[in-house]
Amino acid sequence: xxxxxxxxxxxxxxxxxxxxxxxxxxxxxxxxxxxxxxxxxxxxxxxxxxxxxxxxxxxxxxxxxxxxxxxxxxxxxxxxxxxxxxxxxxxxxxxxxxxxxxxxxxxxxxxxxxxxxxxxxxxxxxxxxxxxxxxxxxxxxxxxxxxxxxxxxxxxxxxxxxxxxxxxxxxxxxxxxxxxxxxxxxxxxxxxxxxxxxxxxxxxxxxxxxxxxxxxxxxxxxxxxxxxxxxxxxxxxxxxxxxxxxxxxxxxxxxxxxxxxxxxxxxxxxxxxxxxxxxxxxxxxxxxxxxxxxxxxxxxxxxxxxxxxxxxxxxxxxxxxxxxxxxxxxxxxxxxxxxxxxxxxxxxxxxxxxxxxxxxxxxxxxxxxxxxxxxxxxxxxxxxxxxxxxxxxxxxxxxxxxxxxxxxxxxxxxxxxxxxxxxxxxxxxxxxxxxxxxxxxxxxxxxxxxxxxxxxxxxxxxxxxxxxxxxxxxxxxxxxxxxxxxxxxxxxxxxxxxxxxxxxxxxxxxxxxxxxxxxxxxxxxxxxxxxxxxxxxxxxxxxxxxxxxxxxxxxxxxxxxxxxxxxxxxxxxxxxxxxxxxxxxxxxxxxxxxxxxxxxxxxx
Length: 604
Prior knowledge:
The chain is of the alpha+beta class. The protein has twelve helices and 29 strands. It folds into two domains: 23-234, Distorted Sandwich (Beta-galactosidase, Chain A, domain 5), CATH 2.70.98; 236-602, Glycosyltransferase (Alpha/alpha barrel).
């Protein structure tokens, strides 16, 4: 996949009123603590500080009036191409004008031993040819209209305070303009490049602590160090099968979503990006879902990545113990329970609200996560690891709990308010007990595996009787329904069914829910939202699992062309290719990874 974009011409903005780009226009940077989104015009429209789940200091993405952004682009009309610098999360954008061209390298800088204790965004500008006049501006927003920025001067240095955040701007040959009085809310500057000239803009920020202003020469070296760090990580990545470039890019996205202070894995980098033009379905995905963590750990194990695997699994176990006895659907990145849903006054992306912090699924019962937890545990042990005594006891208790609770109605994978006996939820409970038996047979967990075996077979019998419709030739969403649900596809890889019924379900899903290569989540969603990106990759995996490898390869070849120019996927992909929902979405990239690896393993 060529990760350079097609050239796009535009006239740069001349005031502080901005058009919000399409979601396909964004690339992501990260440092293990937060994520920035950069559009094709070199403008950073999203950056929470200090953490990914903090209120965003720069949030033009969802607040076009007062969200704030960081600009850097030529003063005259330009076109751009961009790419990631090799197997890294450092972005390179080339701006071309009639007068010449420049290269901008964007990085959230990391230190010698990992992430820095402050946020440090570096924007290195190198003249390629000719002479290009560049301008920049650092315009903090109102943190979703909860605070007001204030500019201060100190011994000739200018910095901005907003709430408990301090933002400093420095650089090298970056032409900073003298700041005025405190009524100003942004810092600006301009400079001119020549062939082989080098310039640097640095934005450093801290939260509720002193502000460190980096030395520009150190930051110049830090950009190269950050590139080298990502390259070193990618060398540990062990996958050279089909679609290796797309798989590696997806692994790099997954790495971006790992919250280094705890090891938790965020579901996505953003909040409130709508799933539907009608609005309403705007959620915050900056949490660690048990489900997403399960798929992530399984992918990390398959890649042979040890540190991230152990950190994510250990974090999840510790968090579950702290808040037991019942599993939560998701947790905060610091391991705490999520709070109440909060709504902000910001208008939302393209004025499609609401803008929220939090997610109403926090108190739901979702039985499928029992299978997800055991899926992680099985993958971890099968990779050669050993469970400690406390973890063994915890899992035995969860297996017993699964035996007791699988008969309950729940909200299903799609976090619905309609409580039903969802077929895929029961399949998840089957998966949990199947893995529990496996782990008990290996001597990894104590308890009554005889009970788990017996209850596992009761679940299978229930699904075969109540979760299947011979008239439709498919697993149905829940008993009494004629709706179809793509989440049952996850249980071809789980091992529940790789036979005739899953085969027929695949065909039924494609007839009703497919639009080209894309699938809607479940029946009825065609009129409410856009196709769900991960569902299409789940279909690839299911096709491979039932032996239809040629069809899986054909579909996979089509799906990998639907990313944006730098290889990112959002939650939903419209039939016209537009992105919808939060991004980058971990579940979409995980589904791609697992689809590629399932095809490789099952076609060997």
